[in-house]
Amino acid sequence: xxxxxxxxxxxxxxxxxxxxxxxxxxxxxxxxxxxxxxxxxxxxxxxxxxxxxxxxxxxxxxxxxxxxxxxxxxxxxxxxxxxxxxxxxxxxxxxxxxxxxxxxxxxxxxxxxxxxxxxxxxxxx
Length: 125
Fold this sequence. Notes:
Strand content: under 5%
Number of helices: 5
Distance between the termini: 57 Å
Order of helices and strands: HHHHH
Number of strands: 0
Number of domains: 1
Helix content: over 70%
Radius of gyration: 16 Å
Mean pLDDT: 91
Low-confidence stretches: none
Largest sheet: none
């Protein structure tokens, strides 16, 4: 069975936006961390739970209403949902909302990284 790309622009956008979001999270974590163990804490307590609760392995439509509402606040859900939409043409949430969430998260994280670096937080001269 050949691999179909239903919406290549969505695949490209979400791949770039997801890469940027994860790299900015890594930069924030690296600036905050005092030791290597702190970076592992970011991975273990932020990235991993968000990815497992993002609908990567299941459709959030099958979740109970309370968990469904919580999943809609997870930016990782929109990364996965938009990427999935690009390949199979089905999304659990409106695609425009996913694009807006990804852009908003990336702009916010980029602003945070810029502010922290511009202020010189934990930088040694």
